[in-house]
Amino acid sequence: MVDQKSGGVELQQTLADEKKLDVVDLTSDKEHNPTPDGEEPTEYEKQTLQHIPENLPFSAWLVAAVELSERFTYYGMNGLFQNYIQRPYDGSLGRGALGMGRQGATGLVTFFQFWCYVTPIFGAIVADQFLGKYMAIFWFCLVYIAGLLILLLTSIPVALENGAGLGGFIVAIIIIGIGTGGIKSNVAPLIADQYTRKKMAIKTDNKGQRVIVDPALTIQRIYMIFYACINIGSLSLLATPYMERDVGFWSAYLLALCVFITGTAVLVLGRKFYVVRPPKGSIITDAFKAIFIMVKNRNMDAPKPSYQAEYYGTQTVPWDDHFVDELKRALVACQVFAFYPIYWVVYGQFSGNFVSQAGQMEGHGIPNDLMQNFDPISIIVFIPILDRIVYPILQKLHIPFRPISRITLGFIVASLAMMYAAIVQHLIYSAGPCYEHPHCDASLVDGVKLGNKVHIGIQTPAYVFIGISEIFASVSGLEYAYTKAPPSMKSFVQAMYLLTNAFGAAIGEALIPAAYDPAILWMFVGLCVASFLSGVIFWFTFHKLNDREEAMNALDYHEQEELEAHRQMSQSDEKRWS
C-alpha cells in the first residue's frame, strides 16, 4: 500500500517540476516566436522589453494651448492680487489698490484659491449631465471673460478713486472662480481623451529594437506636457509685475483678458480636430446619491438595485449594479487624494506668503511678485529632463517609478521648500534695519518702505523646490485621477482631486492668524514637518498600490470591451424585435 503522505509529496513535486518545464518552454517559445508588431505583448515580453510612450496627437496639443492661455490669465492676475489687496491706493503706479493689509490680502487670495477648486464640482456636473466636456469648456470660457471684464473695469484709476475697487474685485473673483473651475474639471480629462489607445502593443523602433508602446506611459507624458504648458502660461508673471509697477494694475489685467480671448478662439477654431464625447446623463448627481446611501447603510453595495431588491423587496434607484461597481472603484482611487490638502497648503504659500516675504527683502529693482516665476521656470526645465532622460533610463534598467512613489517624493521635496522658506525668514529677521518687524519706519527711503538688507534673489531655491515637487505630486495626481477613474466618471474623479486643493486652501485660511511677523517663521516650520510626515504616512499607507498599477490601468480597457459587447448585443436584439 502506498503511503498517502509520501505519495502527496511526490505528486506536489511532480506538479512543481512540470510547472518549471512549462516556464522554460514558455521562455524558449517566446524567444523563437516573438509577438508581431501591433499586437499585445505576452507577460514574458512585458517583463523583459523596454516600455515607451507615444507622441501626443495634434488635438491634444490644441487642448494644451487652450489650457496655456487660461493659466497665463489666471497666474498673470492672481500673482498680483497680494499687492493689489494688501497695499493702499495712493495715486502712484503699482503701489496698491485696496489697502487691506497682509492678513486681509492673504485671506482674500486664499479664499479665491478655495473657490477656484470648489467650483470644478459644478463644472463636472454641467459637462457630464448636460453639455459634454468641450461645450462646457466653451461656455465657462465666456463666464471667465465676463469676470475678467469686471476686474479690468474696476481696477482703472477712476474706479479705484470712486471706491469701486473692493466690490468689483469680490464680484470679479467669484465669477472668475466659476469660470476657471468649470474649465479645470474638464480640460484635464479632455486632453487625455484625445489619446485613444487602451492596451499595450509591440513595436520595432528606429534602431531595430523591439519595445512595448505603453498607454500608461503615454498618459504620464500627456500630463507632464500638459503641466509644462500650464507653467509656460504662468510665465505671464514675467510681464505683469512690470506692467503693474510701470503702468498700473489695469494694464496687466487687460493683457490677461486679451490672451484668454485668444485661447477661446483656438478652442472654437480647432473644434473639428477634437475627440469629443457626448454627456452621459446624471452621472455626478447619481454618484453623490449613491454615496449617501452607502454612508447611511454603512455598506458599499447598498445602492445596488440587486441589493435593494433582495433586502427590501423593491428598487427605487435609476442606476444599475455596474454603476455602483464603477463608483466603488472611483472611491478607491479617491482615497489616494486624502493626503493632498496638506500638500496644497504648502503649494499655496508661493502665491501668497512667499510674495510678502520677497517684499521684506532688498529688491534691487526686482518686483517682489516677479520671484514667483522661478516656480514655473524650474518646472519647464526639469520636465524635459525627467521625460526624455531620467524616466527612459529607469525604464531601460527596469526600475519602476510608479505614481505612489512619485507622489511621496513630491511631498518630501515640498517639505524642503518650507524648510528653506523658514531659513530665509530667519535671515530676514536677523538683518536690519527692522529685524523682526520689516517695513518699520526705519526702512523709509524717499517715502517708500524698503525691505531688510537681504538680497531678494536668496529666495529662489524655495520656488525651485516647490516646482520640482509639483512635477512629482501634482502631475502624478492628475495622471492618477484619469487612469484610475472608470470611463463614465473621469470628470467626477478629476473634480474630487481638484477639491483637495479647496480643502488645502481652507486649511490655509485657518492659518492666516499666524501670517504675521515674527510668528510666520514657525508657520513655515510647522508646514515643513507636516508635509514630510504626510509623505511618510502616505507611502506606508498606499505603497502596495504600486504593485497593482498595471492591473488597475487595464480595467478601463476590459470594461470598455464589456460595454461595447453589451451595446452590440442590445443593437442585435433591437433589430431582431423590429
Automatic annotation (TrEMBL):
Subcellular location per the Swiss-Prot or TrEMBL entry: Membrane
Protein name per the record: POT family proton-dependent oligopeptide transporter
One Pfam family it belongs to: PTR2
Biased composition annotated in UniProt, kind: Basic and acidic residues: 16-34
GO molecular function, one term: dipeptide transmembrane transporter activity
Membrane topology qualifier: Multi-pass membrane protein
Biological source species: Helicocarpus griseus UAMH5409
Assigned keywords, A-Z: Membrane, Transmembrane, Transmembrane helix, Transport
